[in-house]
Amino acid sequence: MIIVMAPHSTEDELKNVIDKIEEKGLGVHLSKGASRTIVGVIGDKAEIGKLEMQHLSGVEKTVRITEKYKLVSREFKKNNTIVNVDGVEIGGSKPVVMAGPCAVESMEQLMESAEAVASAGAQFLRGGAFKPRTSPYDFQGLAEEGLKMLRTAADANGLKVVTEVVDQRSIETVARYADVLQIGARNMQNFQLLKEVGRAGRPVMLKRGLCATIKEWLNAAEYIMSEGCDDVIFCERGIRTYETYTRNTLDLSAVAAIKELSHLPIIVDPSHGTGRRSMVRPMAMAAIAAGADGLIIEVHPHPEVALSDGEQSLTPADFRSVMEDVNKLAAMLRGEADA
């Protein structure tokens, strides 16, 4: 249930509503806009069903949300959420780009990558310090030493940091260095991790699971938001189908679906979505045309010797070319005359 407070309701009236909800053992999530405050009621469905709040002073109306995901829902919040990461807006009028190597390998590799993506117009440096790999013998990452490198390279080039959290024990460590915490596809339904990361005080980027439906993905985001994190970003990175030519099947219809069902921003990963360097450009362009709020792209100064995902990583020169095309398309879609 959501409770819409009247435009001129008082703080005392709002407090009374919250008190009535909490008396029933239910939780509260506030969303304060310019003219209205919306109170989201969280908890046991049976108890929520018994609530009668419309008669309380200061309440304009109540709306019962039928989906299991509440805070994530477009019913809960009609206007798009913009996630502001220290001045960089995800979900605003211009697409945001996160770029860098799949894995942090060395300071030299990372600094070269950061310089390249920053000069081409990216706002975030991406890179894995903890790498959950299919084989236990593959490169697993440099852990905290890699995080330190990410922070140093990003700061030197005016970039923000997005990197993956792989378990509950590493959240606090990763949060010391990263601006956005990434939940990878394999952990999309690691519900204890989702709850913990929702309390970490950082924006969270939630990648879609390998075989997850859109509703499962939305409900995973609900776990994060229900712990107090308002700044959640969806990331479509392809799903597993019977197709073998591409690494995954990039589901760009998910961009339109998320825009209908949720107020949260969504970005697209054409690197993991295809697994092929040659397909990153067309899928990046298609993602922006579909309405994505940004992209996350793998870039490596020397893909041929990359320790992870070299076959889908762009060279700095190729990335610059992709950025030029993406920016032209985004400007045209905004209706700018010089597009």
Task: Please give a structural write-up.
With 339 residues, the protein is an alpha/beta fold. The chain has 2 domains: 2-63, Alpha-Beta Plaits (2-Layer Sandwich), CATH 3.30.70.1140; 83-333, TIM Barrel (Alpha-Beta Barrel). The protein has helices at residues 11-23, 45-50, 107-120, 143-156, 171-177, 191-198, 214-225, 253-261, 270-274, 277-290, 316-333, and strands at residues 2-5, 27-32, 37-42, 59-63, 83-85, 88-90, 96-100, 124-126, 160-165, 180-183, 204-207, 232-236, 266-268, 294-298. The chain has an 8-stranded parallel sheet. Strands 2-3-1-4 form a 4-stranded antiparallel sheet, with helices on one face. Helix 10 packs parallel to helix 11.
Could you outline the blueprint of secondary structure elements for this entry?
Layout: E1 2-5, H1 11-23, E2 27-32, E3 37-42, H2 45-50, E4 59-63, E5 83-85, E6 88-90, E7 96-100, H3 107-120, E8 124-126, H4 143-156, E9 160-165, H5 171-177, E10 180-183, H6 191-198, E11 204-207, H7 214-225, E12 232-236, H8 253-261, E13 266-268, H9 270-274, H10 277-290, E14 294-298, H11 316-333
Parallel strand pairs: 7-8, 7-14, 8-9, 9-10, 10-11, 11-12, 12-13
Antiparallel strand pairs: 1-3, 1-4, 2-3, 5-6
